[in-house]
Structures are given as structure tokens and as C-alpha cells.
Amino acid sequence: MNKIILHFDMNAYFASIEQQNNAALRGRPVMVCGEGRSVVTTASYEARAYGIKTGMTPYEAKKLCPEIIRVNGDMEKYVDTTRKIREILTRFTDRVEFFSIDEAFLDVTGSVKSYDEAVVAAKQIKKQIKESLGLACSVGIAHNKLLAKLASDMQKPDGLVVIRKEEVPLIMEKTPVEKLCGVGRQLGKALNGIGIKTAGELGNAPINVLTKHFGFWGHILQRMGRGEDNNPVAAYYEEDTVKSVGHSYTLPQNTCDIDVIKSYLLMLSEKVGSRMRSYKLRGRTVSLVLRYSDFFTFTRQLALKHYIFTGKEIYGVAYKIFSRSIPLKKPVRLIGVTISSLIADNGQELLLETYRKQEVFTETVDRINNKYGAFTIKPASLIIAERFGILPAPGKFLKNRNL
Fold this sequence. Notes:
- The protein is 41% helix and 22% strand.
- By secondary structure, the chain is an alpha+beta fold.
- Helix 4 packs across helix 5 (115-133).
């Protein structure tokens, strides 16, 4: 049975929410950034007309558009809006899978009988989102997730595009390989380097050539180039509530000072550990992100054989990864720590008394910090770092976080 998949992509999501909430921003160029030194996370379409893109610094954006308005992002507001969008989408089907905070797949195979009926449903959903939240979105419709996402990118903002099966070969022939979901800039460059410029060329490439350069991934790439994708749309209630817990922070100024970086690593690790415990989770894969002054981003991870849950343990792994970069060749601009490979903490008693005492101590600290504020009790090294101005006061720290 042929499936009918819809992909909803909210247009300039964070900026559109800010414009909807503040009439003074409507029709004007807006960039949404983090607090302090940051980059553009979303630009309104009025700003994009000046060439402003995600990842630019506010300084670069101001050079292109001096009248651009900067707004500090409010993730709680955006997450709340996404919850409201999900409520609308699940009125039509329970097969709703969020791909990111502003994108979702819907499998409406059981609700509609044809693409024409799917178009009617898509228009109804777009109308409800517009009337309820004042936001526009683009929709792609196809028989699989890969093509539905490709279709939603073809007409922005506020578009609706259908890719039918018989149209796939011609569309793949014209589509740059970088436009396929999962390829991205670096992989696109690698494919271009062996003469593959379009999705059609990727689909027709000899499998031995692809596996030579990309290993087993070459088989998947070839299928993507042909527009093939068998991944199902998960029901919203089947999605993992938390797949990873992380924090990142842009430093007040670039630095090569190892002690400063270690202090930030420790505070980030403590915040990650605290949030993970609040979700009653443990993890065993720690990832470290370092973004340097030239915006080159270093990302490495280390998987453990056992599960951890305290900031001290997370810091120990993060620092082990970081130590491999010493001595630093360039100043560091941003630091991020994330833990994944999560399991539920079922409260099972620890066998070793030493570890049980550590768990009881950590739980006590969490209760105090939850009642009186973050970092009421904290490691001595953080107190020293704050006292000497290495770190900001806790209340001003760590607005950036990810799930």
C-alpha cells in the first residue's frame, strides 16, 4: 500500500513567533540570537532578503542590514508553541513525528485516500495553525519522508508542494545532492569531489564507487539518490521524550586559558547532570563541542561501559576528551557538553556502599538547589572561579540548552 506522508516546516520559526507576539516587529528585519555573544539562530524573511543567514554573527548581520532588530531567544516560548502545534496536528492523525522543534512528519495514509484529499487536509492544518497561532508553514506531500521533506523545501514561505511517484526521476535529476535530508554541506562536498552533483547522479552511481568512499553508508546514499526511504513515521506517543541532555555556552571573550575552560566545563557538566537527574535518567556517552574563534567546530564523544549521572563524572569524561586538544592552537569561543545513550533510572539500589553514599549526597544537593536556586551548593572550584571573575554569576549563566 502506498503511503501518504506530509512534512510540515514552520517558516522562520523563532523570528515569526517573536513577530506574532510583538506587533512592532512585524514586517521588519529581525534576527533571533542567544544572550551575550552569539550567532543568528533564525532570521525573519525580511532579514533574509538582505542575505542574512543562520550562523552569522550579529555584527555580520548588522553590516548587511543596519536596521535589523536583535531579539534574544526564548526557548520556553518556542517549545510551548510547538506543543500547541502538536495538538493541532494530532487532531488529524496519531502518526505525528517531530523531526525538530519546527518540523514534523504526518502519516495520513489511514485518513485520506488520495493526494488530492491529502492536499485538502494540509490546507486545513495550515489554516488552523494560522488562525490559532498566526504562523505560516510550508508543507510537502509524497509517499515517503525523504521526498516529503524535499517537497516542503521547494516553496517557501507558506508553500504546499506534492511530489508524485512518476515525478521522482525528473525531480532527482534536477535536485542538488546537498538538498537531500541527511547529506549536508560536508558530505555534499565529498560527493561533488567524486563528480556527483545531483541526486539523480547519486542514485545512478556505481555502488562499488560509493562504498569505496563512504563504506556501508554508500548503499543508503544510493537509495536516497533514487528517492527511496522506508523509514516509518512514529506515533507521537512512541517518541522518546529525551534522547540527550546538553548545555552549551558562548564565552564572554575568546580564550586559550585552560583553567577558564576547565571551569566552564565543570559548570556545564554540573548543569547537565542536574537536569538528567531531574528526568530520572542515566547516560553513558559524553560529547564535547568546542567552537574556536574562526568558527571551526570540534566535536568528539566518548562512550563508557557503565552509566553515569553526576556532574563530576560527566566532567571527568568531558575533560578527558578536551585534554586531547591541549595545547590549544586557537582561542575557544563556545563550549558544549552533552550526554546521550540514556536509560531510565529505576531507583535500583547500588551494590557498592561508596557509590550509594555518593548517590544520597547528590540527591540531597539537588533538593537544596531546587528549593533555593541553582548552584546554592556547588563544587569549590566553581566558587573560586566566580570569585576571581572567571565565570559569571549563576543567574546569568546557561540560557542555551538542548534536549
